[in-house]
Amino acid sequence: MASETDHAESVRALRQLRRMRTFYAGGAALWAVSAGSAGWADPGSRQMWVSVVFLVVFASLLAMTALWLRRRQADQPTEPVHHAAPRRTAWRRHANA
Question: End-to-end distance of the chain based on CA atoms, in angstroms?
Fold first, then answer.
């Protein structure tokens, strides 16, 4: 059974992977627009090929991050884990004397 620190690190890792997935998706979109614009203005130019290379790099990073995120989420249990005590105090029922 995993300790609480392992669970906390796992939650942080998932959060970081989601942030990186968003960043890589934005980078891939930016370089796709740049490659399309450079290819439209001057097909076969060095600027177009550099944009295409960066597009491939960001797309591959996005794919790897999505794969890692899917694997990490598959390892997580489906039921939520409750570490803290409930906020409401339980009603105490006393037997009538």
Answer: 45
